[in-house]
Write a structure and sequence with these properties.
Layout (H helix, E strand, L loop, with lengths): L1 E5 L5 H4 E5 L9 E11 L1 H8 L6 H4 L12 E9 L11 E5 L7 E5 L3 E3 L6 H4 L2 H14 L7 E5 L4 H12 L3 E6 L4 H6 L3 E4 L11 E6 L6 H6 L1 E9 L11 H10 L6 E4 L6 H13 L6 E6 L3 H9 L6 E5 L4
């Protein structure tokens, strides 16, 4: 099969190239998917660059052990491994796995859900990592009717879902973004703050702050919170060596000693959450805001665009037409 393969750590156009790769065989609890669309995420960029550097202990010392980039996918189940229940060949699915920028990829059945017939696969591909991260961030924030909620990084892939989900929960949402993203954020149902023109940490107090950008200190973010507010930290940014680990550790240590709830978290994609989000899209209560789609031949260019940090909503690579 054809796949986008990474040969070393670095930038997209320097280290990614198309190559022939073996068609993967589904293992225990896995399904093999004939990939129609793959959505890109900041996580793909971090692995591509090998940042934070401490992450190379897991990814690989000089290049990723999994050479094929991409995590989110949507397509049609082609084969199932031992122990799979509830999914079978011919099912349209979306999920999060590894190596989705290829003609075929395997994903744990527990991390994939059926796609409703009315939801296009290129929209469904945008859901698993970004949508589930947003859903779990809003849950961790305890967001409810009448809450004042701030989303830092509101124009990105996760942010575009988080704003919509918080607004649908009845919250009054403020989104922090660049000047160019303000109109997009307002279209999601939020008030927009241009981070270059206004210090959002002085615009509170907010009942919940969902930080997806990782560009402010823990002290600054806490200053935007109400005395009993909740700070949700979900970001891969931070120092090149350690990423957000130190800040997240400081938040966990401080949380027991303050009325403010400081909650770093790592999203875990689950079939139930992917299915919930897809059902919301099918029902019209949520939109997958896809900024642009690229053909498979332009997958490296698509990753380069995401790595620039200014994508509005999701970027999707299309491998096959439905």
């Amino acid at each position: 099969m054809r796949a986008l393969v990474q040969t070393a750590y670095g930038e997209a156009r320097d280290v990614l190239a198309f190559a022939e790769a073996p068609v993967p065989e589904p293992g225990e609890g896995e399904v093999r998917v004939r990939v129609h669309a793959a959505a890109l995420n900041a996580a793909d960029v971090y692995i591509m660059r090998g940042e934070p550097v401490v992450g190379r202990l897991a990814f690989g010392p000089s290049r990723p052990r999994q050479p094929i980039r991409g995590r989110d996918l949507a397509g049609v189940v082609d084969a199932v491994g031992p122990g799979v229940r509830g999914l079978g060949p011919g099912d349209r699915v979306a999920g999060e796995g590894e190596g989705s920028l290829a003609e075929y990829a395997c994903v744990k059945a527990s991390r994939a859900a059926r796609v409703p017939d009315t939801v296009p696969l290129h929209d469904a591909a945008a859901v698993p990592l970004a949508g589930v991260t947003a859903l779990q961030a809003v849950r961790n924030g305890g967001v409810g009717p009448g809450d004042r909620v701030l989303v830092n990084g509101a124009a990105g892939g996760v942010g575009s879902f988080a704003v919509q989900l918080a607004a649908s929960a009845g919250a009054e949402v403020t989104g922090v973004c660049s000047a160019g993203g303000s109109g997009f954020v307002r279209s999601l149902g939020a008030r927009a703050i241009d981070y270059a023109a206004e210090d959002f940490t002085r615009t509170g107090p907010y009942d919940a702050v969902i930080d997806l950008a990782g560009n402010r200190t823990l002290r600054e973010l806490r200053g935007a919170l109400a005395p009993d507010g909740t700070l949700v930290l979900s970001s891969g940014n931070g120092t090149r060596m350690m990423g957000p680990l130190w800040r997240n550790a400081a938040a966990s240590l401080a949380s027991p000693f303050t009325r403010q709830r400081l909650r770093p978290f790592l999203a875990r994609t689950a079939r139930e959450d992917v299915g919930d989000l897809l059902a919301r899209i099918a029902g019209g209560g949520l939109r997958a805001r896809v900024e642009r789609t690229h053909p498979f031949e332009e997958a490296a260019d698509a990753l380069a665009h995401v790595s620039g940090g200014h994508a509005r909503g999701k970027v999707v690579v299309t491998l096959r037409e439905e």
